[in-house]
């Protein structure tokens, strides 16, 4: 089976690997940063000391679930947004409804840290959905130190539903949720959304991928932090499996981040993928790399249910004071999670389903 495994080995062909940190506070316009499970008696929003981001209670964006706090011996070790959780002992699907800008690219990031919040020491495994489509499997038995998932996605409506779906005996939970609006000219793919496979800030020089059939988009970030003398030059080529990736060598700008991307997806069909930075003959200095991001393409083929009909159902729910635990997420899909008492019609996955009764 080993010959079927593709291995991406990131080789930094350099004597100097340099990490640059930026201390400035980012603009937070349009950001949604949710502390899931933040107690009602604590201020919302608050500014997280570690990130200088404003975090809000998630209670405005979800109508179900209960709140908890990680074990006391762990609480002091965590940043504040990750010390509380919202967990979902009732219902199979529980969903956040978040305001977004239709047609604009957004970064969506979800954090999960179990922290023995319930004192049972039973780490959960469950599914994460984006609207009617599966996004990721969260398995905290394997990720004992917690995990996060991250995706770059263009919503097809002004509301984004992020759903935790129970798939076994354990209880889904979440620690924090973040939404960031992005420029549509950043992180471009031929189709689909980009799911973060790994991001490395070069504390290590190797990273492996073992999925032979996937396609990968690479984003390499460079910045010069040294004052070069007149007789010094730093330039290099990016090489993927012995193929030069750009027509011109990379020459990092002083204290300015330059991002180089693979416009078309890369594959590991030959069994081993190798990414190298190789300095040119005229370069007197070795290559440098600040950070490397690798994304896989994920497709969300199932269309969301007709927006007008979903809005009508929400009005009925509000007018008559209905409260059904399974009336969350997309009303029609996936079929096994369809809302109670609804019938839907659907011609194909690309056409929005209709509510018929």
UniProtKB/TrEMBL annotation:
Superkingdom per UniProt: Eukaryota
Keyword tags: Membrane, Signal, Transmembrane, Transmembrane helix
Major place of residence: membrane
GO cellular component: membrane
Subcellular location: Membrane
The Malectin-like domain, residue ranges: 34-216
Protein name in the entry: Malectin-like domain-containing protein
Source organism of this protein record: Microthlaspi erraticum
């Amino acid at each position: 089976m080993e010959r079927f495994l593709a291995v991406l080995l990131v080789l930094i062909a350099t004597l100097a690997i340099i990490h640059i940190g930026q201390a400035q506070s980012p603009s937070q316009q349009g950001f949604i940063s949710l502390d899931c499970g933040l107690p009602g008696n604590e201020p919302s929003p608050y500014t997280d000391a570690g990130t200088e981001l404003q975090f809000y209670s998630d209670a405005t964006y979800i109508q179900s679930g209960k709140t908890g706090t990680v074990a006391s011996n762990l609480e002091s070790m965590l940043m504040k947004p990750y010390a509380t959780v919202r967990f979902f002992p009732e219902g199979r699907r529980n969903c956040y409804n978040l305001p977004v800008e239709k047609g604009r690219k957004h970064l969506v990031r979800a954090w999960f840290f179990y922290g023995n919040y319930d004192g049972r020491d039973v780490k959960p495994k469950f599914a994460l959905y984006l609207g009617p489509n599966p996004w990721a499997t969260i398995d905290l038995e394997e990720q004992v130190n917690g995990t996060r998932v991250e995706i770059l996605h263009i919503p097809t409506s002004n509301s984004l539903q992020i759903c935790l779906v129970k798939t076994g005996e354990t209880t889904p939970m979440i620690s924090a949720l973040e939404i960031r609006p992005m420029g549509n000219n950043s992180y471009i793919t031929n189709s689909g959304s980009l799911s973060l496979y790994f991001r490395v800030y070069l504390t290590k020089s190797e990273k492996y991928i073992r999925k032979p059939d996937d396609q990968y988009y690479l984003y390499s970030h460079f910045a010069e932090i040294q004052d070069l003398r007149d007789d010094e030059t730093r330039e290099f080529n990016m090489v993927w499996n012995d193929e030069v990736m750009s027509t011109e060598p990379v020459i990092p700008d002083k204290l300015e981040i330059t991002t180089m991307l693979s416009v078309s997806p890369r594959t590991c069909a030959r069994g081993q993928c190798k990414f190298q930075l190789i300095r040119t003959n005229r370069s007197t200095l070795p290559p440098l790399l600040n950070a490397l991001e690798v994304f896989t393409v994920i497709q969300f083929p199932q269309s969301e249910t007709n927006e007008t009909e979903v809005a009508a159902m929400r009005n009925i729910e509000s007018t008559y004071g209905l409260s059904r635990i399974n009336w969350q997420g997309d009303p029609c899909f996936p079929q096994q999670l369809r809302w109670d008492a609804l019938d839907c019609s659907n011609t194909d996955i690309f056409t929005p389903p209709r509510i018929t009764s």
